[in-house]
Amino acid sequence: xxxxxxxxxxxxxxxxxxxxxxxxxxxxxxxxxxxxxxxxxxxxxxxxxxxxxxxxxxxxxxxxxxxxxxxxxxxxxxxxxxxxxxxxxxxxxxxxxxxxxxxxxxxxxxxxxxxxxxxxxxxxxxxxxxxxxxxxxxxxxxxxxxxxxxxxxxxxxxxxxxxxxxxx
Length: 168
Prior knowledge:
By secondary structure, the chain is of the alpha+beta class. Helices cover 48% and strands 20% of the residues. The strands form two sheets. The protein has a five-stranded mixed sheet with strand order 1-2-5-4-3. A two-stranded antiparallel sheet has the order 6-7. It is globular.
């Protein structure tokens, strides 16, 4: 399965990452559709090289005509952001084109702080590092699209339900 193999490989390679976007919204308990994986990865070069190696080993390639390892180059990421208005770097699977992964090329919020406060969710035997709701809402505010605004409202409901359950 798409998600399982990606998280398993990233964990195996000890990549520091967080699930963000629609996948994080779903993992926090909101029922909604999402097809891709959105990730926020620690931009330390060694970590990014482990990340790109893990995806390459699984059969993923960059959507743009560059080497996967180019993602680890801070100057290239900055150039893509400035010249192409790129916010995420996309990978697709060579044989399963519907399997798609987007990775932020910049830090919309501080990674280290968000990583420190992550929530670990389990799916079977796999541990999945998920961005905390408060940071997810900030990222959704920054994006500001209609779906993001709807996600923020749904996440507020999740927070209220969690608070009510804690009181019991």
